[in-house]
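Title: Request for sanity check on SD-repeat containing protein B domain-containing protein prediction

Description:
We are preparing a figure and want to confirm that the structure record we downloaded matches what your pipeline produces today. Could someone re-run it with the sequence below and paste the raw structure tokens into this thread? We only need the token string, no images.
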Amino acid sequence: MTPTAGFPQGDWDCQVLLNPAPGFGDYYCVHRGPIRPGQVLEPAWLRARVDSGTPGETQTATATVRPVDGEVSTANNTAQASVAVVEPGTIRGSLWIDQDRDGQRDSDEPATAGVRTLLFLPQAPVDGDPTEITAVLNPDGTYSAALKPGPYIVQVQIESQYLDFTLPDVGDDATDSDIVTVQRDIYGGIDAGNSAVIDVTAGSDTTIDVGFIDLTS
């Protein structure tokens, strides 16, 4: 397992030190307030990523605390947590400009990567799970991600003065747009389009395509 990016947690602020080696790494955590003698602090949650493994096996992470100063006993400074490796599912898709605004992608309609961001939003996160996962969008407008099984929504955020979402679920499902609801920014800034909830299961492969209307043409 490899530590992932640092994050704030309650009164703790934790960061991953640079360039952790696969399977090993260091966090540097600072408590934001003063610590009184005998005070029991809330826990600091540390995230680690499973880099490889076989579905069904169990991997164990060990964390050892090395305080800078002021600790009377170090007998309880090591803890372990075990996780089961699960087979991920995949969500993939493509983004394109719907030039004739009919909700279907024609063979001559171009791809686009010109959106603000594309997110996977877990709908049933457990402790330690991220509340959003940023997708990597390729220059040709395609994306693909392996995700832990569970329910997700794909959200695409756009700058509303340049783009709008085309009609959803029109005609052939293989060439339509799968954004079914849109959250409008009343101040004309960033609009967010959402897919229906996708049930990602082990080995599943779901396609969510997104069509846009170019408001500048």
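Thanks, this matches our download. Residues 12-85 form one domain.
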